[in-house]
Amino acid sequence: MPHPIMFDDADPWLGRLREVALAYPRAEEVVSHGRPTFRVGKIFCLFGSEEKLADGSRRPHPAAVVVKAEPSELAAWDEDGRFFLPRYWASSGWRGIDLDTGRIDLDEVAELVDASYRLVAPKGALAELDARG
């Protein structure tokens, strides 16, 4: 049985994330587990998530971007109250940030997506990106 769709295709944040993510070499969008994921072979970001809370409950973040973090940056991100631990992804070094809070702008989203892309993209895709300038 397929997962239900858990996003609004007309969400303006999703549209902005698509502009950013799909501009990367070899990037594609695939709906997986009911959410849009952006891949370059491997997932480099996704839209929407649930936060895993300390008491075991979860909080939905329908308009969030989830990205892979540099291991050296995880502690700082965990101290920054804007980031949350996304369910299923947090233990692998991924963090989410809710876009609806007004505490992040598109430039910062683009920087987070860029860093995540660079962590997972194959060498050929990175060479294409660097060749663009």
Total of helices: 4
Total count of strands: 6
CATH architecture: Alpha-Beta Complex
* Strand adjacency order, main sheet: 1-2-3-4-6-5
CATH topology: Aspartate Aminotransferase, domain 1
- Given the helix and strand composition, which structural class is it? alpha+beta
Distance between the termini: 44 Å
Q: Name the assembly state.
A: single chain
The global form is: globular
Rg (CA only): 14 Å
Count of discrete structural domains? 1
* Overall mean confidence score, pLDDT: 95
- Identify low-pLDDT runs: none
Q: What order do the SSEs take from the amino end to the carboxyl end, as H and E? A: HEEEEHEEHH
Q: What amount of the residues lies in strands?
A: 25-35%
- What's the main sheet like? 6 strands, antiparallel
Question: Please, could you describe this protein's structure?
Answer:
InterPro entries: YjbR-like_sf, YjbR/MT2646/Rv2570-like. It comes from Nocardioides zeae. The protein has helices at 12-21, 74-79, 106-120, 123-132; strands at 28-32, 35-40, 42-52, 58-68, 83-84, 94-98. The chain is globular, with a radius of gyration of 14 Å. Helix 1 crosses helix 3. It has a single domain (12-122), classed as Aspartate Aminotransferase, domain 1 (Alpha-Beta Complex), CATH 3.90.1150. The chain is of the alpha+beta class and 133 residues long. It contains 4 helices and 6 strands; from the N terminus they run H-E-E-E-E-H-E-E-H-H.
